[in-house]
Amino acid sequence: MGSGMAETHVVAISGSLRDDSYTRKSLRIALDAAEDAGASTELLDLREWELPVFDADTENAGDAETFRERIQAADSVLLGTPVYHGSFSAPLKNALDYCGFDEFEHTTIGLLAVAGGRFPITALEQLRTVGRSLDAWVIPLQVAIPRASNAYEDGELVDEEHRELIETLGRETVQYAHIEPDPASFESGENVGADD
């Protein structure tokens, strides 16, 4: 980790596999704000990673080891997901299943969800629970972008209120990157598979 002056490193995971993904575009806005706040950043685009459906018997399948190393190197992790059936995406769930306490304990997590419809909140609450079960510190601010096709025009975010929220989340991944975490959460005691 180096000295106390080490640069804060923020990693974003995009849970969308769509080429023209609003989730990915939104995460890039957040990462730009994190860079402006002094962080180094990296976007982990799950289209570019070979992560087969998680099987605990082959937990180092594909790119899993390298993927975990990238997460472990982060001070803060932004989780971005499209909303499918009121929940977060299968690619993001699968990527998170490859990770555990080693990657996320005492890490700061920011949450962002994008929906075609009106109600992206349940996906964010479910991701918040995942973060708590890994003893991460989840930023209280979370960004929900309903009706994403209205917020974006020609690939650009035109909704200034959402832009402000996304940029705030990006800055907070830097601001709270080294927050002193609470004691282990109740949920983490139930998370018996996370450190197998």
UniProtKB/TrEMBL annotation:
Domain NADPH-dependent FMN reductase-like per the UniProt entry, residue ranges: 9-148
One Pfam family linked to the record: FMN_red
Cellular compartments per GO CC: cytosol
EC supergroup of this enzyme: oxidoreductase
Keyword Cytoplasm assigned: no
Gene Ontology terms for molecular function: FMN binding; oxidoreductase activity
Enzyme Commission number: 1.5.1.-
InterPro entries assigned to the protein according to its UniProt record, in alphabetical order: Flavoprotein-like_sf, FMN_Rdtase-like_dom, NAD(P)H-dep_reductase
UniProt keywords, alphabetically: Oxidoreductase
Protein origin, superkingdom: Archaea
Homology family: Belongs to the SsuE family. Isf subfamily.
PANTHER family assigned: CHROMATE REDUCTASE, NAD(P)H-DEPENDENT FMN REDUCTASE LOT6
Protein name in UniProt: NADPH-dependent FMN reductase
Natural source organism: Halorhabdus tiamatea SARL4B
